[in-house]
Amino acid sequence: MSLLNVEDLQAGYGKVQVLFNGHIKVEPGELVGIVGPNGAGKSTFLGAIAGAVKASHGTIEFGGESIRSKNPEDIVRLGLALVPEGRAIFTDLTVNENLRLGLTGRREKSGAQKAIEEVIDLFPVLITHRNHQAGLLSGGQQQQLAIARALVSEPKLLMLDEPSLGLSPTVIQDVFGVLNRIQDQGTAIIVVEQRAHLVMSIAARTLVIREGHVRATLLREDAQDEARLAAAYFGTGEDLE
Amino acid sequence: MIQTILDALSYGGLYGLAALGIGLVFGVMRLVNFAHGELIAIGAYLLIVTIDLGLPISISIAVTGTAILALLMEFSVFKRLRLAEPSVLLIASFGVSVFLQRLYEVIFGALPLSGQIAPWMTGVIEFGDTTITRGSLVTIGLALVLLGGMWFFIEKTTLGLQIRAASSDFQTARLLGVRSNRVIGAAFVFSGVLAAAVAFVLVTQRGSVDPLFGVNITILALVGTVIGGLGSLQGAALGGFAVGTTISLLNSFLGNYRIYTYTWLFILVIIVLLVRPGGLISNKAVKERV
User: Fold this and answer.
1) Among A88, A78, A85, which residue's Cα sits nearest to residue A47?
2) Fewer CB in 10 Å around end: N or C, chain A?
3) B48 in a domain, yes or no?
């Protein structure tokens, strides 16, 4: 049984439908990428899975349980955490307070402090800033805090929406390096990115979303095939599903 | 002079409590709740109609009743409008406000309802040549205790942290597991408790309550939440305190010209907003960084 199984998902905002056919399967411990141009519906896809965007049609099963009609606060307690686009950290709270908020979604209430310490080990740059206002961190540090905050809930599946947005190349390498370590610890990950090569370098398979439809599934080796990549990304040629 | 300062502090504390009550609900719902005035009014009505049971029981009934009415507002009206535009919420709060004013007329009558809540508060205490009113001291003490208690709750407890997070970014707070109904319900309950405290001070000063009892202080407290910085709980309390203190000082210094108090108050408010459009507490240290 897949950890996450989404089929024929449709979602949007009011009368504007953005996602027309979202589907994805994620196995425990797997790292899956999602790429696509601006406005393709990637963030809406993740938002609908996490309960932040209302899905109008389709099925979302997590751990064998339907979560389509659940609230975001219930979904995170099942072990599905989303790091939204733009980090969405609480800039007026301290780093420590941001991490404490991440504990809210834990299924197991014991061991909370230990969970924070373990996550801090993963992001040592946060140690010296624990009592500082989160808004004073650099962009890369804020991104690491956003991931750390999601991890303290000990999710089975971590979803990241454009974690490289606004970061310098060296900081991006740091952030993506940590994703491999998180996966090694058994957490499944979905990474949404516009930069196809970046996500394909760490994901075993990558879905391409265009105009609200999942159009193709690419494997890691497809990153070398520029023609195939461009065809999938920009929609030149046939869909590759 | 000492009495002037104490009056200013007590007014500031009173308006700070009212503004914090409004700011709490605004923070988690982006709702400017004009019906907060009717929470203050029901607190005052409950105090007057139950005072024969003794002050402690009367205060307990007023606090409980006001908090329950605040929760009823949330469950019966605002909860159904969670996804509505702020303008819709604003109009809905006007509707609740007018509905409750008419309901109070039907239940308690349109004329003022009189009663003595705590006559000992109207006396004076003499220190040598200086006399100060007990009411000022009690109001300052009450404001200090309640604002201090609210500060502790907001800054030091998990629910307080969740309310701060929800005030900053409600959707992200929910994604982290913060239960929306719980924080919004808590904000309304505390808003009701603060309204009851304001009602106690006001009805002790005035000795009567009518259906429009809470309207004036609510409008001025709203001004306080705006100049304090909408969305900031500390800003709301500070803004309310600033408005109350300014009104009291203007009343003292303008003497026979005190009819111009509100003219000068709003001139000052406009100046503050021109200089700091984000309110007194806008965190300049926090900027978008890459």
Assistant:
1) A85
2) N
3) yes
Chain B contact present for A220, CB below 8 A = no
Range of the domain at B74: 2-275
- Contact between residue A66 and residue A60 where contact means Cβ atoms under 8 Å apart: yes
Q: Which residue of B has its CA nearest to A78?
A: B177
Interface predicted TM-score of the whole assembly (ipTM), two decimals: 0.91
Which residues, listed in sequence order, are joined to residue A62 by a DSSP beta bridge? A4, A65
Q: Do B177 and A139 touch (CB under 8 A)?
A: no
| pLDDT tens for each residue of A97-111 | 999 999 999 887 788
Cβ <8 Å between B165 and A101 = yes
Q: Could you say which residues from 15 to 44 on chain A have a Cβ atom under 8 Å away from some Cβ of chain B?
A: none
Q: What is the pLDDT of residues B251-264, one digit of tens each?
A: 989 988 889 999 99
Name the pTM for this structure.
Answer: 0.84
Q: How far is A65 from chain B (nearest CA, A)?
A: 18
Q: Is A104 within 8 Å of B162 when comparing Cβ atoms?
A: yes
Give SS3 for A174: helix
CATH for A4-85+157-234 is 3.40.50.300
Q: How many domains does chain B have?
A: 1
- DSSP secondary structure string for all residues of B204-216: HHHSEE-TTTTHH
Contact A71 B164 (CB under 8 A): no
CATH number of the CATH domain containing B260: 1.10.3470
Q: Are A161 and A129 in contact (CB under 8 A)?
A: no
Query: Residue B246: inside a domain, yes or no?
Result: yes
For residue A98, the chain B residue with the least C-alpha distance is B165
Q: Under an 8 A CB cutoff, do B161 and A139 touch?
A: no
Half-sphere exposure of B257 (CA within 13 A, CB side): 7
Query: Would you give the distance in Å from CA B60 to the centre of its chain?
Result: 18
Q: Which residue of A has its CA nearest to B281?
A: A92
Rounded distance, CA A32 to CA A199, Å?
9
Please list the residues that pair with B133 across neighbouring strands.
B124
Indicate the helix (H) or strand (E) that contains B203: helix B180-206
Instruction: Dump the DSSP string for B141-163.
Output: HHHHHHHHHHHHHHHHSHHHHHH
Cα of first residue to Cα of last residue in chain B, in angstroms, is 53
Specify whether the CB–CB gap between A163 and A197 falls below 8 A. Answer: no
Mean confidence (pLDDT) of chain A: 89
CA-nearest residue of chain B to A51? B175
